[in-house]
Amino acid sequence: MKRPSTLVYVILLLALFSCTPWIVWSSSLCHEASSEVVRPHSVSITDFGAVGDGVTLNTKAFQNAIFYLNSFSDKGGAKLFVPAGQWLTGSFDLISHLTLSLDKDAVILGSTNTDDWPIVDPLPSYGRGRELPGGRHKSLIYGQNLTDVIITGNNGTIDGQGSIWWSRFQNKTLNYTRPHLVELINSTGIRIANLTFKNSPFWTIHPVYCSHVTVQNVTILAPLSSPNTDGIDPDSSDNVCIEDCYISTGDDLISIKSGWDEYGISFGRPSTNIIIHRLVGQTTSAGIAIGSEMSGGVSDVHAEDIQIFNSRSAVRIKTSPGRGGYIRNVYIANLTLANVDIAIRFSGLYGEHPDDAYDPDALPLIERITVTDVIGENVNRAGLLQGIQGDHFINICLLNITLSVSKKVPWNCSYVKGYSDLVSPKICEPLKERIFPEHSSDCYYLSNPLKSSSNRNKGGWLMSW
């Protein structure tokens, strides 16, 4: 795809985004859990001998500090403060009722020695490491079976120094699957806010088997050439709210997952009630993706006020025969796109399998996907919507979409069924039937055409927080 000159692109981007009133980050849709929770006990990492020179390895200092603070977990919890400096460390575990707080000039640096990232068991919903059979490296910041954990700071930084891992992946010299930057397992009441995350070895923030997770006001950065550096990957998790984030990485900005083939089907924990609000970013992959590991099911996803530029695609659903599971009740609205290759992409034959034991007849159910209120300039193709023969993706609904497209055939659709209204350029044949008035109830979140996308009620599931 031909790229505009830098000056032309900047003018285009400013023109597009200045016309969108929601660029001013405003009201929160997330659960109002404050990062300013007062913990009655607080220590600094320097109290445990840590040295912030970027050279001294501080893994033991982090581990000892958290071990000490664990004695206060039933006394109102505790805070571990990381002051200004560069704090080199290997993997360390969090505890319940903990606030990890970084000064604005604090940088936690991941060790470049792979031995400082221990090996842990594969996730049961994956059955093996995502990249290689067997175990996987533990994330830099790790925790499991936790309650009430806050990771925050005045825009302090957590830097995984991932280039060594990217090289080993590209050179095929890995012995185990690469580590995430932050991974929390089977935990509840998690808040990650007001931080910058950089250069993750693999996926950046990975809540898996978690409930009530909030990620707010974070910046996630990795080179566009870095492999699989997803931004935020809710995985077999529920009641997740992601809000006011800027992400620029080498893979999906947000990717919603729920396990891999027979392991995900057997584990059977879906990702549900996911809200994404005010996301800005660029990537060599997708802005918002679902899959490809979605075998436990994904449902009730609401994403609004999204700005994607310089990216492969804006919205992508990825699945395959053998995945099983479902993706249903997805609502994505208010997208502004600039310099995007494919605006909307569904891939029904995507991705590899964990082993030869998967069932090729385990077909996924993809239904009730709504994309509405989209504008885009310098888009190569409006949509590449490819379902699965004998397993159509159904009730796909597209509404109020206006794209400036360079391809002579802007839409390519196969094995999909659905409806549309107010789509330009002209929609493909399988989606030509109109939504209103007779099919609005078939389209997720469009049963009341008088509701505007900006005023739709998100309160139903948020009331459960």
TrEMBL record:
Places the protein is found: Secreted, Cell wall
SMART domains linked: PbH1
Gene Ontology molecular-function annotations: polygalacturonase activity
Pfam families with a match to the protein in the record: Glyco_hydro_28, Pect-lyase_RHGA_epim
Keywords attached to this entry: Cell wall, Glycosidase, Hydrolase, Secreted, Signal
GO BP field: carbohydrate metabolic process
Signal sequence annotation: 1-26
Major location (coarse): secreted
Database matches in InterPro entries: GH28_Enzymes (IPR051801), Glyco_hydro_28 (IPR000743), PbH1 (IPR006626), Pectin_lyas_fold (IPR012334), Pectin_lyase_fold/virulence (IPR011050), RHGA/B-epi-like_pectate_lyase (IPR024535)
Domain Rhamnogalacturonase A/B/Epimerase-like pectate lyase: 43-89
Lineage top rank: taxon: Eukaryota
PROSITE patterns in alphabetical order: PROKAR_LIPOPROTEIN
Family as reported in the entry's similarity comment: Belongs to the glycosyl hydrolase 28 family.
PANTHER family xrefs: PECTATE LYASE SUPERFAMILY PROTEIN DOMAIN-CONTAINING PROTEIN (PTHR31339:SF86), PECTIN LYASE-RELATED (PTHR31339)
Name the record gives this protein: Rhamnogalacturonase A/B/Epimerase-like pectate lyase domain-containing protein
Organism, as annotated: Lupinus luteus
Higher taxonomy: Eukaryota, Viridiplantae, Streptophyta, Embryophyta, Tracheophyta
